[in-house]
Task: structure prediction
Amino acid sequence: MRVENPQLRARLAGWGVEHRPDQRLAEWTSLGVGGTTDVLVIRQAQCLPDLIGALEVEGLRWRLLGGGSNLLVREGELPWVVLHLSARGRQPEFLGTRVRVQAAADLGRTVTECARQNLGGMEGLIGVPGSMGGALRMNAGAYGIEIGQFVRTVTVYRAAGNRIETISAGEAGFRYRQSAIAPDDIMIEAELELLPKPYDEIRASIRMSNQKRRASQPLNEKSAGCIFKNPRGASVGKMIDELGLKGHRVGGAVVSERHANFFINRFGATADDLLRLIDFIKERIRQAFGYELEGEVILWTD
Ligand SMILES: Cc1cc2nc3c(=O)[nH]c(=O)nc-3n(C[C@H](O)[C@H](O)[C@H](O)COP(=O)(O)OP(=O)(O)OC[C@H]3O[C@@H](n4cnc5c(N)ncnc54)[C@H](O)[C@@H]3O)c2cc1C
Result:
């Protein structure tokens, strides 16, 4: 989708929004798959009500991209423009055991910046790629913790009402790999409450999380992390392994040999290859174990 109207382009520039035409989303996503559209890089979130209002008047649909590490995007000319919050020049603000952090900030960098202030708790999240905003939307978690448990408030642009407001963690409704934030709401910043801890202790547990991750995940290949959510009390990776489907290939897409719930774009996979692999594995799990698997990866395939 192209932003063609010169008046709208001038307004974008006025709001400090950088217009990057014809971007291949394959280059913006960790799976390395996805077609072409215009990307609007937003430096001042305060412009969101005006910006979204203007896109709507223009009849331009939009999607919001964080770090692109949990997305499977279709090929071809995409029917929506992509909004992306810029992290440039923004530092976390510390207030005792609380930190206020921008949604655009890198999650891993935030964990290490907090560590330097002797604030811990989130060490297990080190190595989860992507932005704070994406992590909040997905309620990213690893090694027994989830980001939602540290959140006090979230400042969010609400599409219904076209305004920015601050809501409590309760209203944000964090659950296993999801939140109750509406799909077209945009998180702008969050206030977290962390645990005071000595720096060396935090550093040691960061190192341990990194080691575990390196030993169990295909970090050198293109993936979007776990493809499916684990049903309560069960592990999708283990089930796929038990079915002997590690290494199973559809076109250029492969089930990782290292972690069977990671699907890899190893041989120039298309979105269609990945979708066919997802359907195939879903069906095999349904037949063998009776689970209807739910996707953890977000599909931008419509
Ligand atoms: C190698 C690897 C390992 C991973 N390990 C883990 C893991 O251990 N645990 C885990 O939970 N995940 C893991 N993931 C998945 C992924 O990193 C997380 O889901 C991450 O939090 C997504 O953040 P993102 O910024 O990349 O989001 P994106 O992929 O850009 O977007 C994901 C969704 O969030 C929405 N979104 C993004 N920013 C905002 C915002 N500001 N406001 C509202 N919505 C927003 C998008 O619209 C989209 O719907 C892994 C991925 C990879 C590639």
Notes: Residues 30, 64-71, 85, 103, 128-131, 133-135, 137-138, 140-142, 186-187, 217, 219, 223-225, 298 surround flavin-adenine dinucleotide (CB under 6 Å).
